[in-house]
Specification:
single chain; two-stranded parallel ribbon; 138 residues; 2 strands; mainly alpha; globular; 6 helices
C-alpha cells in the first residue's frame, strides 16, 4: 500500500512524504524517490526514538517490530539491518537534540541548500501542469 501511495504522490505537486522504516527497503520505491525528489534521512539514537514513541499516542507495545522485549535493543537491530538503505539518502539529519519544529526547520534548510542544482522549483512544476504558483510561493 505504501508503494502505491508513494507512486501516486510522486506525480503530484512537490510535497514532503514521510515513509515508514520498512518502505526504504523496497528497491522500486528508492528508484522512484531518487527520480522524483530528494531523500532525507532523519536519525536519532535508539534511546531517543523510544523516548519519543513513549510520549506519543501509539505506545511501544502497539508497534509489532518493537513489542515483546527490550524495545531499544529491537530498534538497534532494525537500524543496523536498514543502515545500508539509510545511507543512500541524499541528505541526513541527526534529530537527537531537536524538537519537531527544529527538525522541520533544519530539514527545510538542508533541502533548500541543494534544491537549485538537483530539483526544479514549485513554479516549474506549476507551469508543467498549466497552473501558476500562488502569490508568495514562487
Amino acid at each position: 500500500m505504501e508503494a502505491k501511495t508513494l507512486a501516486e504522490a510522486a506525480g503530484e505537486a512537490p510535497a514532503v512524504i514521510a515513509l515508514g522504516g520498512g518502505a526504504i527497503q523496497n528497491e522500486a520505491a528508492w528508484r522512484l524517490m531518487r527520480r522524483t525528489g530528494i531523500t532525507l534521512g532523519l536519525r536519532a539514537a535508539p534511546e531517543e526514538s523510544i523516548r519519543r514513541i513513549r510520549s506519543s499516542d501509539k505506545p511501544v507495545e502497539a508497534r509489532p517490530l518493537l513489542a515483546g522485549g527490550d524495545p531499544v535493543a529491537a530498534l538497534r537491530k532494525l537500524s543496523a539491518a536498514r543502515e545500508r538503505y539509510y545511507a543512500r539518502a541524499d541528505l541526513d539529519l541527526d534529530t537527537d537534540r531537536l524538537d519537531a519544529e527544529a527538525v522541520a526547520a533544519a530539514a527545510v534548510g538542508l533541502i533548500r541548500s541543494i534544491q537549485g542544482p538537483l530539483t526544479t522549483s514549485h513554479v516549474d512544476h506549476a507551469e508543467q501542469r498549466g497552473t501558476a504558483a500562488p502569490e508568495g510561493e514562487a
